[in-house]
Predict the structure.
Amino acid sequence: MDLKTLTELRAPSGNEQPLRRALLAEIKAMGLEPKLDRLGNVVVVKPGTQGAGAKRVMLSAHMDEVGLIVANVTEEGFLRPLPIGGVDPRVIISKRVLCGDEAVPGVIGAMAIHLQTPEDRKRVLGYDDIYVDIGAKDKAEAQAQCPMGTYITFDTAYVEFGDGFVSAKALDDRVGCYTLLRVLEGTYPCDVVAVFSSQEEVGCRGAKGAGFAQEPDVALVLEGTTCNDLGKVPQPEQVCAAGAGVAVSFMDRSSIGNKRLFAQALELAQAQAIPFQVKGSVSGGNDAGVIQLARGGVPTLVLSVPCRSIHSPSSVCKLSDVEAQLALTQALLRAM
Amino acid sequence: MDVQKILTEASAKVGPSGQEMEVAEYFAGQFRPFVDEVTVDAMFNVIAHKKGTGPRVALFAHMDEIGLMVIAIEEDGSLRLGNVGGVDPRILPASRVWVHGKERLFGTIGAMPPHLMKPEDRKKNYERKDLYVDVGLPVEKVRELVRVGDIVTFNVPATPLLNGQFAAKTMDDRACVAMLVETAERLRKLQCDADVYFVGSTQEEVGSRGAETAAFAIAPDLAIAIDVDHATIPGSRPNTTVELDSLCASIGPFLQPKLLKRLMDCAAAHHVKLQTTVAERNTYTDGDEVSLARDGIPMVLLSLPLKYMHTTVETLDIQALQEGSRLLSHFLSELDAGWEDDLWI
């Protein structure tokens, strides 16, 4: 499945069904046997060539994306949303969305600049102010189309642009899903336990269960991570750079990369000329935070694709960084 | 005429103020089947002429869109933005754009991520100076293709909503140009003596400069400006907006009272729902310039309500647009030689 298909599927946390169905079909078509666990994770075990005694390596990439959910409907027929995951309300003004399984189109408008007072211009519109307009004529019609609990996603087409860049919604973490599917095409000495996890954006809930259930010896987390390299930003605030290779985390806010794994990853990348960078900031958190603490503890490392404007309707990454994420993941698997 | 199709196509045309060539060519093609002559003048105004022996009337709706321009190229290849017309900076983060350099480049507007900001900065709106355009190219390539002063326009598909509502960029005021195209089409089936000029005007967003010269050139006996007005949305302050579902006529010193009465009577006779609003002085439309062209031109203003004006999701009611073309076609058809009698008495 290509990255375009993956990013355009609509799967906010808690409503990952469309992506889950697509992954199940894709993995079956590869001749593998995907399973669904009790938290909605898609799990595939691919035995290694070492047979008995092979290391059990869990690879995790999360299926879900940030989005919105209808909390209620106004008398005039507008939808009042709350965020699913971390969505800065400042980046969704004047954007297009799709609501619910029927993909009802909607827009997020705001008061015209002509009518704003100087105070209005300064004020940040929050979730108390923001609403989605689907063109409903009244509350009854809006409720019939998009009742409370309707999941909303950004409506953003996948576009390749510039020098090998991609603009899309949900690059966090469809890049990881894409890499994980590609990993499954290969065979490795170790056992590979591929987990397409659910509900990362609302607290890494899927990976928590999977980390326990799969009892891995080692875990690699394939992510998309914050990248702030444009706009004349001083180096310390850039976190990582798009196009500079896979970002290896020594530490983020939810886990510390296992020192041996970290060193091994850097050695392999250098030896095999895989473009890499060390993520230059202790920020963000991900599935590694829960997997490392599963049962008696799991050595864990996070390998990320830098994503500009992450969690926005139009995030950006460079395809060569996705290839580097795949290359380093495979290099590590071959060395286990 | 398929209104949704023309709105979708028109919305995608490039045409910030002063650079309306592409959208002008599009609308010239749309008018052509329904009129005797179409020209594009020195200001890129589209002037579609339906010849007649009666009063000379000109209708104005503007084609130009708000946009942005490149004001600097950073060392990392990102572009800084300036305004062309009144762009609300709140709509910019994560918006997609076209950068019109030597080639048309896809770009997306980025900003510092919130979790890297100081808590107090997260409580502030992004300003234009905080934002940049990412065109995904190394700086050397950017410098080769992009110059300071190149224009930047929004790149957003149109979104049909429920109940004939329709959201897209540039509906201010291309929806009203589409209304004029449909008026021209309807007029073919009606008796009409008037000498009618439909004008897709330019540079409205920077001061109605296109309408000013077009009004001089056409020298009409009377004029109708057609523009958008703010429709009610949640949080609208009282008395600042009109309802989305029907047209609106303005009352005030800039609007010729007898012509206005004629328009309102025409609406009543043909059962076109017409709201009214007060413009206590300027209308901030082409009408202001047109009414003072040459020795003065009696003018009225018809408005199409629009939600979220000057965003990329300007939302209108297609039925209201179609009622507008129905009203205008009857108004033109019924315009007789006696229209000027007792104009100011």
